Amino acid sequence: MNGFETHRPVIVGVDRSEASRWAVRWAADEAAWRGLPLQLLHAQEWPTGQPEGEADRRWAIGLRAAGDTLLDTARLLAAERQPELEITPRLVEGRPVRVLREAADGAAQLVLGIRRLTEAHSALPIGSKGASLVGHLSCPIALVPEPPDDLSGPGPVVVGVDGSESSRAAIGFAFEEASLAGADVQAVEVRRPAEATQPDLVEESLVDLSEALAGWREKYPDIQVRREVLTGSPAPMLAAVATRARCLVIGSRGLGGFRGLLFGSTGRALVHRCTVPLVIVPNVPS
């Protein structure tokens, strides 16, 4: 169990998109493997003011009933995936981003579905609202594309490494994920093209990777680990390496080539390029 978990639930945002269904599957696996409960969260943004008249009251009752039905469908999907899982549906009034952000404070992991290679669905509003979630949460956030290639496939857990505190937290998450999923770990460091002319760049980077991974390899001796050093733009390089991975894990704030990864065009490119679940890990809480 990592530093983000006590018995906090895995929380998944539920909406009417197909991406949300894939997110529920991912979240069910994560919760079951980690021995945690699963919470299905649906936020409804109600109009301001109180219902006026019978028509408004009927509309309000119908809206809540639709939310309950949506959550019940998600519960059945999660239970089919993991029959022994403890599942709690939760319908909350409020703006989705605010509701999700507040819920993340009590979560072991927050899971959202996103559309692949298009503007992200409302579950992850890109722009000022999206930035308020990604990179500012106290727990890991998993962005599950629509649809991922295979949520239970044999691919490795790919982790981006750059020596930052968030990167170290990402490495720990990646090893635990690999152990739970029965997967290998592929650790990748991406260097900027301007550094390509530096002598011994690859050798020095491989040494840095070995040092970053050393303690985790001792803790998980049965996990096969591959190191890889690439030169280029971080987002497309990481997305390309992770094409057949179980997931791609990165820190929320990095150094060097990863700095600002989640708050500009590079981060947006990674979200939309990545064809597997993207897990963004903050620093381990003290």
Automatic annotation (TrEMBL):
Top-rank lineage group of the source organism: Bacteria
Gene3D superfamilies: HUPs
Pfam families (UniProt xref): Usp
Signal peptide: none
SUPFAM superfamilies referenced in this protein's UniProt entry, alphabetically: Adenine nucleotide alpha hydrolases-like
Domain named UspA: residues: 8-145, 156-282
PANTHER family (alphabetical): STRESS RESPONSE PROTEIN NHAX, UNIVERSAL STRESS PROTEIN UP12
Family statement drawn from the similarity comment of this UniProt entry: Belongs to the universal stress protein A family.
Name assigned to this protein: Universal stress protein
Organism: Streptomyces kaniharaensis
